[in-house]
Amino acid sequence: MDSYDIMLYVSYLLIGLGILFAIVMPLIKSIDNPKSLLKIGVGVIGVAVLFFIAYSVSGDEVLPKFAVEPFNLTPGASKAVGGVLLTTYILFFLSLVGIVFTEISKIIK
């Protein structure tokens, strides 16, 4: 094991700690203000509903070349990937609309 492997494992550890702290610290802070947990819950439920809608709309077609080795893509996995992609596109579009709306409202004020 050389220094590259050690640094790679250290980076994995630091990424894991960063993810853990990014999730746990806001939860600890929100104990003082339980209404903030409600906002987080509404956001998570909203994204889940959006994903369900995108998953329902997405197709489950798989080209024959992707149904065999090395991909082994199933219709269910294809539908899940389509749902994630549609959710990402919708959230990206909504963020762009929000940015444009914020900038226009700044100009008007």
UniProtKB/TrEMBL annotation:
UniProt KW keywords: Membrane, Transmembrane, Transmembrane helix
Keyword Transmembrane part of the UniProt annotation: yes
Residue stretches spanning the membrane? 6-25, 37-57, 77-101
According to UniProt, the name of this protein is: NADH dehydrogenase subunit 6
Q: Which organism is it from?
A: Echinicola arenosa
